[in-house]
Amino acid sequence: MTEAEFLKSYNPKVFDAPLCTVDMAIFAVEEGELKVLLIKRAEHPSKGRWALPGGFCDLSNDATIDATAHRKLFEKTGINSPYLEQVESIGNAVRDPRGWSITLLYFALIDFETIGAHPQSEHTQWASINEALKCELAFDHKVLLRKAINRLRKKTRYTALPISLMPRTFTLTELQNMFELILGSPLQKKSFRRRIEASGLLEETGDMRATSRRPAALFKRSKNFEEDHIFPGLLDVKLEQV
Amino acid sequence: MTEAEFLKSYNPKVFDAPLCTVDMAIFAVEEGELKVLLIKRAEHPSKGRWALPGGFCDLSNDATIDATAHRKLFEKTGINSPYLEQVESIGNAVRDPRGWSITLLYFALIDFETIGAHPQSEHTQWASINEALKCELAFDHKVLLRKAINRLRKKTRYTALPISLMPRTFTLTELQNMFELILGSPLQKKSFRRRIEASGLLEETGDMRATSRRPAALFKRSKNFEEDHIFPGLLDVKLEQV
DNA sequence: ATAAATAGTGTCATTATGACAATTAACGCT
DNA sequence: AGCGTTAATTGTCATAATGACACTATTTAT
């Protein structure tokens, strides 16, 4: 039998296949808090529970699983090009009452200022991490959320990832606040600035942020910006794993 | 409708689900070369091509995707408890001619000396990384192999992962050779030993390796061994990404 | 005994971060 | 204009970890 003949006679439905979904932890910062987008499930199972946005791969419209993730993100936030990273895939017989299921977990980092909109309604909320982890989330989404947060925290110790949560321009103090917010502990101002400057990831815009005190220089991503730039040393904080 | 009623009437087969497989890059070292296990495909598609070992999740026997990975590893190597890590999931419409498919990519690190057997036959070979990447591997397995190798190399710069490729006891020089083999560049003996010693991951067995020259102290994993121990600094090598 | 080879150590330089003080620039107030 | 307050920015030294490289130690072969 040739491969062409084999494929002609192949029926993918004869084997049991797991349910396959993409779930996303979409992070943003608002009012000095790290928040995650939650959707209230409109249908069974887990109807009425808060959940991470997600859904099935649409085989006829999504070319890749990343496309599915981008589509989900766009449907919920209107955002096209966020920082998007695959965290891990979790699959087992018990996580979804409909049957053996696998989810591809992503996280996205977005920023309200460049986007403008942050939908909030009866069925959509931006919950702070602590709030979200206190909820009874749908399925195993609490586990998923923990994995996403832990990944974000871990990478914040040795990469420049949190820059992707910032608006187009920002001050170094604002950026440091973002790092501290994610890590949950304060950083040394001087060390932080040295790191950032040595990385060459940012450049001054020339403008200043007008505040009630001494104005701060505004920075933006430079030509050679890469969000997961790896610093030569780890930031010395003890992470609380959630 | 209650959730129970919903589930009763739910048919997972009405939606098109992607094919879902687990593929593994199983690494081991032999004769000073980093090798990966390849299987010659017995069936269509890609019949006759070399491929990474893998296969479908067996929903009735595997409780989790990690169980599938462990099962595949055991089937091919007889090994039960290797270092096993999920690398990434790759899914798209074109990687498998049978249709939209997702693979969950893992890599495993094993060591021949503790295991004993390294199957090699007409249908099974341990190929050096360079050989394997020169082959026309089945499906997108060349891409998968690259991803697995790059992950291994990257983590070797800041973790103790390669210890999992070593036999139960080994000398520090042998361990350094392993690191150098993976990284593709030489390391400073002193720096390397300092790092390892400071980590507390290893302890001396008290025995010595008898060689034709000065004997070397044998080490083994200590109580507090953890394969992905993170060192405070990056090894300073420029990685060639494959 | 001596050379060769590999194991293991000593030492200083370099790089990066931690700690913390000092300086600078703006604002509001008197 | 001068002063206090606040936040931005820089200076300086200590500490930690790696890089470079030389030196010592131990074994075998000759």
Account of the 3D structure:
2 copies of one chain form a homodimer. Chain A is α+β, with helices and mostly antiparallel strands and about 240 residues long. In chain A, strands 1, 2, 3, 4, 5, 6 and 7 form a 7-stranded mixed β-sheet that branches. A 3-stranded antiparallel β-sheet of chain A has the order 8-10-9. Chain A has helices at about 5-10, 65-75, 110-115, 130-135, 140-155, 170-185, 190-200; strands spanning about 20-30, 35-40, 50, 55, 85-90, 100-110, 125-130, 170, 200-210, 215-220. At the A-B interface, α1 and β5 of A face α1 and β5 of B. Chain A binds a DNA duplex (30 and 30 nucleotides) through α7.
Task: Please specify the SSE layout and strand pairing.
The structure is a homodimer of 242-residue chains.
Chain A: H1 3-9, E1 19-30, E2 33-40, E3 50-51, E4 54-56, H2 65-77, E5 83-92, E6 101-109, H3 112-115, E7 124-128, H4 129-134, H5 141-156, E8 170-171, H6 172-183, H7 189-199, E9 202-209, E10 216-221
Parallel strand pairs in A: 1-6
Antiparallel strand pairs in A: 1-2, 1-4, 2-3, 2-7, 5-6, 8-10, 9-10
Chain A binds a DNA duplex (30 and 30 nucleotides) through residues 171-173, 188-191, 193-195, 198, 211-217, 231-236.
